[in-house]
């Protein structure tokens, strides 16, 4: 009777194979502990809010000084525009280095070093004598410093949050429009009062706030948040030991195969960054779609004000379009995180991201149809909604695909590959304006660059979710069979012991 009860218990899916229907199925939590989903994690989110805000807003805010710097060095607009482009490209290219340092030393020291690097870059740039000096200081040193601010801030959120992770990421990503709205008027005031050299010195001190943000990124207490052992089949006592014995040969084969695969890619670099992600189905889907998407992601923002001026709108009204865009972007990012955290969206959040990317493409394709200033205001509102949705979900969906334990390596590999589209996207769009003498063809191209990967994401994530469901069903069947075999083996041993005792 006892063996019958054990068999009945192991046949129960709740006891043997627990399934969490509230969490996304794409990547399991393999952190080895249960994230606190709150507490000091909200202080970490605030630190990430500041750090991510400076990372994305700082290169854009420096454009206020470009006109005076251009006249001072007697260079063309395209030459001065490369300062921000090189800074953004360096920020993305420094992703793998930042990931290696985060995996080795943790997020807190890396963010603090990044803040010091950006501060040093701005101070050195204030003494610049040539435009090349600004490329090296602001572009390269400052860009790498921003990379040391961005990746660790994104990574540490995944160590503190699991259930509320979309909301936490959405709040952290809100730092970009908030800091941009703060730096834009501040930079104008500094420029009017101290010129570009004095402003760079002051900005060098302001950006040291990233060090304060980094100090908030205390490593999570893993010992206090031990992960409950509910992910393994529970057959209780000796039955669990027998299950391990029955499955020894299969596990040995799997371990041997895994070691052979890892030995092919492991080396000095693989110890710090996970190159096996290039064999991860979800990661490759994300990477391919994002490379195409980033060719048309930033250009519509860069050319929004010039496009308005091209239509005969005055400078102040054209600049106000960017303020409208930033204001909508500021509020939609946390709202997107809140929506993404609901039980209807979270299990299939990749579809939500696919919709956001496609929505961007549709907005750009319809932009040339907007006539007059109020037409562009409507476009700025809808574009702000679309841009904020993508920005809030951009790294959350990557963490959903690969898991928080592999996110640091994943974001490093993604950013270095994306630095090409980030660097070339606006110049290619500008070349279309020069070639046709009209901005509408640029917006058509950006719309295609966004709509095509959006459709690609819909199709490939449908395929990915289907394959994940099939793989999960196979794993359930294997574990159920293993559990039942262990119970049967234990029952036969009990019967044998009983017969020997009776005899």
Q: How would you describe this structure to a colleague?
A:
InterPro entries: MCT (IPR004743), MFS (IPR011701), MFS_dom (IPR020846), MFS_trans_sf (IPR036259), Proton-linked_MCT (IPR050327). Belongs to the major facilitator superfamily. Monocarboxylate porter (TC 2.A.1.13) family. One of its GO terms (molecular function) is monocarboxylic acid transmembrane transporter activity. It is found in: Basolateral cell membrane. The chain is an all-alpha fold and 503 residues long. It is built from 21 helices and no strands. The chain folds into two domains: 183 residues, Up-down Bundle (Growth Hormone, Chain: A); 218 residues, Growth Hormone, Chain: A (Up-down Bundle), CATH 1.20.1250.20. The longest helix has 63 residues. The radius of gyration is 27 Å and the shape is globular.
Count of the separate structural domains: 2
Overall mean pLDDT stands at 79
Order of helices and strands: HHHHHHHHHHHHHHHHHHHHH
CA-based shape: globular
* Helix fraction bin: over 70%
The first-to-last residue Cα distance is 21 Å
Output the keywords.
0% strand, Growth Hormone, Chain: A, 2 domains, 503 residues, mainly alpha, globular
Please give the structural blueprint.
Blueprint: H1 2-11, H2 13-16, H3 41-61, H4 66-73, H5 77-93, H6 95-105, H7 107-125, H8 131-160, H9 165-173, H10 175-206, H11 209-215, H12 237-246, H13 248-265, H14 281-293, H15 299-302, H16 304-310, H17 315-340, H18 349-366, H19 372-402, H20 407-436, H21 440-502
Helix pairs in contact: 1-21, 3-5, 3-8, 3-9, 3-10, 3-11, 4-5, 5-8, 5-20, 6-7, 6-8, 6-20, 7-8, 7-10, 7-11, 8-9, 8-20, 9-17, 9-19, 10-17, 12-21, 14-20, 14-21, 16-17, 17-19, 18-19, 18-21, 20-21
Family: Belongs to the major facilitator superfamily. Monocarboxylate porter (TC 2.A.1.13) family.
InterPro entries: MCT (IPR004743), MFS (IPR011701), MFS_dom (IPR020846), MFS_trans_sf (IPR036259), Proton-linked_MCT (IPR050327)
Domain Major facilitator superfamily (MFS) profile: 41-465
